[in-house]
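From the shared-data thread, chain only:
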Amino acid sequence: MRDPWEWEEEDLEALVASGVQESLTLDYKRCAALDKQNPKRAADLSKDVSAFANSAGGVIVYGVVEVNNLPTAVDQGYDPSELTREWIEQVINSSIQRRVDGVRIEQVPLNKNSPGQVAYVVAVAQSRRAPHMATDHVFYKRFNAEVLGAQGRWTEGPGPAVAGWSTCARSGACREPSIVNIADSRHRLWQRRRPGGC
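Structure, as tokens:
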């Protein structure tokens, strides 16, 4: 199969026909999942993209119906003049703290199933700058096909908690924390080492 950013309608049909199940790196969303008039849908987009970036990366296919984690049909699609790739990109860039790099958004014309309509494939790379916080101030992570949240804040090594950045004593330049601690809803600690900035 081709890379997700090269997918066409036939690739979406192949996912359905083969019953490719949702997983750590694949999620299906019916068309109702993106709606410019509903702020909750923008918040859900922020949550889903940040969860993929905080985990192993992956692909969200907007425009495929799923039941019990299995794709059942290509949905009716979106009018590309009303729901645009630029809107999706703007929501992602404005609602996730630290901006997520390496997101690709592709329109897939649904010429066979719904002429004039499109599906969207959002490919998210695993982030080297994780964790990323969604618009609701929660850090999300994927576990298989499930998304779990972790409320927390940036902290750094020994010393006081910081808001995500500290200052290098030698150069005075800002740098990222060397260790990030986030407690999730099950009171486990996520700890990521980060390269120093000096």
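Residues 154-181, 183-189, 191-198 have pLDDT under 50 and may be disordered.
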